[in-house]
Specification:
By secondary structure, this protein is α/β, with parallel strands linked by helices. Strand 2 and strand 3 form a beta hairpin. Bound molecules: succinic acid.
């Protein structure tokens, strides 16, 4: 095992949630228990080592904010840079864990690999007082993953849920209550994947680019796009049908939006699989970019980061930055 302590960063979520009646675990409130208390009764080996706990937030992750993402990222960065910390675990609500996962992967994944450390996200689908609560086994698995990263050589921003480890970038919640809801379609973990030479800069500003997700569906119109454009939206992620196809009425307005300089990214609302740039129409013809395997929610964060990076560095356009996330 690695020498060094682990850092446990708590964000809240169902893993820290409580049901009013433990026999009705679907009716609960997330973010009720302090992160420190989640360590009780985990049955870690006596020589497991110290776990330093920092409670960053205790929220239902549907309320995640850019400010909290930045606080979390700075805490992860500080932990990675400390010699006495050998790995980091983050407890997080599952509803937006995939967004936090892609954000941390893009901004700190290379740094984690550089320091040969794992940052492991985990959470739970059942509240802490449910009869078969999955939080303790998930947290235990995450702590061991972080602790044993030098032996397994699995570094970077990772995740584990329901006994299935994966890259945090590959998380996507695809079921409302299955215990493996986030990892059901994730690739097996066989080493971190980084397409970039370097991490993207951590945002420093409080206000990130305004990006909205617009869903294509039967009966779509472009009215919502026009509303957003007139209000100053900076980017639109299309949650397209099937392989990322878009209703023609909506498409017309999105082509105009792209012509007006709004960043348009095309993803699929199906929840799994990838969107390819030539299918069904070439993105280049319409000035859009395909989101590849990023879900709409993940593509939204990736686009924010790509726009921030392109604005700050001016040497690479947002399209080429987005393509490496
Ligand atoms: C949340 O995302 O905070 C609530 C849902 C969950 O953690 O499963």
């Amino acid at each position: 095992m690695n020498s060094g302590n682990l850092l446990l960063l708590g964000m809240g979520g169902t893993i820290a949630g409580l049901a009013g009646d433990p026999k009705k675990p679907m009716a609960y409130q997330a973010g009720q228990i302090p992160t420190q208390a989640l360590l009780e009764g985990l049955g870690l080996e006596p020589d497991f080592g110290e776990i330093e706990v920092h409670q960053i937030a205790n929220i239902d992750s549907r309320h995640m904010s850019e400010e909290l993402l930045m606080q979390l990222a700075w805490a992860v960065k500080a932990g990675l840079e400390r010699d006495d910390i050998s790995g980091i675990v983050i407890t997080h609500g599952t509803d937006t864990m995939e967004e936090t996962g892609v954000f941390l992967h893009a901004t700190l994944g290379k740094l984690a690999s550089h320091y040969r450390k794992a940052v492991v996200l985990t959470g739970a689908m059942l509240p802490a007082n449910a009869e078969h609560a999955d939080g303790p086994s998930n947290l235990r698995a995450a702590l061991y993953m972080a602790k044993e990263s030098r032996e397994t050589q699995q570094y970077g921003i990772l995740a584990v849920m329901a006994g299935k480890p994966c890259l945090a970038r590959d998380l996507s919640k695809q079921h409302t209550h299955a215990l493996d809801a986030l990892v059901v379609n994730a690739r097996e973990l066989d080493g971190p994947i980084h397409k970039r030479q370097a991490d993207l800069n951590l945002p420093t500003q409080m206000v990130w680019p305004w990006i909205e997700i617009v869903t294509s569906h039967g009966g779509s119109s472009g009215r919502f796009v026009d509303m957003l454009t007139s209000q100053g939206v900076e980017g639109i992620v299309i949650a397209g049908t099937g392989q990322g196809s878009v209703h023609q009425a909506l498409a017309q307005h999105l082509v105009l939006a792209a012509e007006a300089g709004i960043a348009v990214v095309r993803s699929s609302r199906t929840g799994a699989g990838a969107v390819f740039s030539e299918i069904p129409e070439p993105d280049s013809a319409w000035n859009w970019l395909s989101a590849r395997d990023l879900t709409p929610a993940k593509a939204r964060i990736a686009l924010q980061l790509a726009l921030l990076e392109a604005n700050s560095r001016k040497t690479e356009d947002w399209q080429s930055i987005f393509a490496t996330i």
